[in-house]
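Worked example 3 (structure in, sequence out).
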């Protein structure tokens, strides 16, 4: 993943104001473009382009550097080197997209470690930590659940009672690559404590163990942020 688009533009071009030749494509075919765009504005704010990246017109279509246009729109521009793709997001969504990509590279080498990471997410009320050890399919449905149930800031749980600790109450080996765990989460308030139960189905994905499914008591959804 690369977040530097200083060299990514809507065309490769050289020259000065007026008609000039530009070399584009792998075979370096010459094309003629017009550098006669005097200014470009976004919401009445004029954009300043570097001298070597001035907008131009080619076949009645205006071309301009996407980085500068994105910044003028207050958007984050993400260039994916592997996929050779460019995406524009709001700045907050761009940061979140990069966070997703970073998290996707993490993993737990044992089911117990995956459970521990996920449980820390419950204790810290942090949906991103929970998300980190899910399968791709569960991540997709989890994000949808967060969005549909008002967890806009990815803060799960409630301020009181809060999750204080957990203990594995049962384990079922369904196969060499799948295991089911029954977990009791202990919560605490200033007036006392109680617990709720969650069942996690884990699957081995390559070298890592990930959570494939989540089920639990009705009250557990408020803590996990996952509503079926």
């Amino acid at each position: 993943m690369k977040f530097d688009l200083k060299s990514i533009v809507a065309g490769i071009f050289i020259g000065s104001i007026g008609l000039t030749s530009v070399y584009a494509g792998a075979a370096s075919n010459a094309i003629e473009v017009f550098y006669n765009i005097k200014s470009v504005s976004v919401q009445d704010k004029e954009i300043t382009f570097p001298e070597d990246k001035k907008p131009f017109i080619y076949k009645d279509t205006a071309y301009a550097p996407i980085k500068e246009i994105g910044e003028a729109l207050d958007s984050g521009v993400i260039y994916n080197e592997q996929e050779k793709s460019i995406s524009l997001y709001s700045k907050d969504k761009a940061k979140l997209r990069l966070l997703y990509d970073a998290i996707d590279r993490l993993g737990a080498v044992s089911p117990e470690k995956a459970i521990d990471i996920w449980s820390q997410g419950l204790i810290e009320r942090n949906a991103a930590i929970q998300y980190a050890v899910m399968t791709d399919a569960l991540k997709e449905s989890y994000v949808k659940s967060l969005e549909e149930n008002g967890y806009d800031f990815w803060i799960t749980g409630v301020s009181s009672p809060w999750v204080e600790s957990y203990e594995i109450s049962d384990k079922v080996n369904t196969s060499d690559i799948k295991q089911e765990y029954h977990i009791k989460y202990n919560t605490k308030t200033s007036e006392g404590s109680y617990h709720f139960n969650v069942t996690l189905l884990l699957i081995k994905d390559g070298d890592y163990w990930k959570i494939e499914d989540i089920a639990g008591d009705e009250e557990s959804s408020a803590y996990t942020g996952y509503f079926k």
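Notes: The domain at 109-224 is CATH 3.10.450.100 (Nuclear Transport Factor 2; Chain: A,). The first strand starts at residue 19 and ends at 24.
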